[in-house]
Design brief:
The chain is mainly β and 208 residues long. Helices cover 10% and strands 69% of the residues.
Length: 208
């Protein structure tokens, strides 16, 4: 009985050691090309920002892994428009800045040496939401910003898909598209006015 317990302990320790050697830890950062889709988004442009965070790649087999990530991601959109009041044209510029802590959980399939395809769900938690604006016309201009977090949902659900390539030295490159699935609006009547986050991410990182 004691030998059996000892053998089991050694086997568990060996499996844990082997798994620890296979698991990869890493960090990444890159560019976001973010936009907001959905209702009344004609004339809404994208916003270029950034993301940064860490990841763990857990191998399931030689060609298949699961990769959870923890990312700080700056998203949102921008818009420009003009209106005429009493013969005077006023130009408006607005940038909606939505910052999230995102947790994607990706399934990775290696189709060739170092090259992988990935897809999976993502949940995001709102950190901050601000609207910055500038109005100009008639030789005058006015600018300001407003906290709009009370009108934005604290939870954002999406699904991502992309590809990556990892060099033998641990440096890797990724490109991913994240499609928003949930309504980011959270104000009275928002059930009839739905918008979603959409983000293209281009990343570079290192894992070991």
């Amino acid at each position: 009985m004691k030998k059996l317990v000892l053998f089991a302990a050694v086997a568990v320790f060996g499996l844990t050691t082997m798994t620890a050697q296979e698991v990869r830890l890493g960090a990444k950062a890159g560019i976001n090309f973010a936009s907001i889709g959905g209702d009344e988004t004609d004339g809404v442009d994208g916003r270029t920002s950034f993301h940064i965070g860490g990841l763990v790649e857990i191998p399931i087999s030689e060609k298949f892994s699961v990769q959870p990530e923890l990312l700080y991601s700056s998203q949102g959109a921008s818009s420009e428009y003009s209106e005429t009041f009493f013969g005077e044209t006023i130009s408006f510029e607005e940038t909606v800045k939505l910052d999230y802590i995102n947790i994607p959980i990706l399934a990775k399939f290696y189709v060739a040496e170092g090259f992988s395809l990935e897809a999976g769900p993502q949940v995001g938690f709102l950190v901050s939401a601000n609207s910055e604006f500038e109005a100009s016309g008639g030789g005058e201009s006015e600018s300001g910003d407003e906290d709009i977090s009370d009108n934005v949902s604290g939870l954002d659900l999406g699904v991502g898909a992309g590809a990556g390539y990892r060099l033998n030295n641990g440096v890797f490159f990724q490109a991913r598209y994240v499609l928003g699935l949930s309504n980011i609006n959270d104000f009275e009547g928002s059930d009839d006015f739905k918008n979603q986050n959409n983000v293209i991410q281009v990343s570079v990182g290192y894992s070991f």
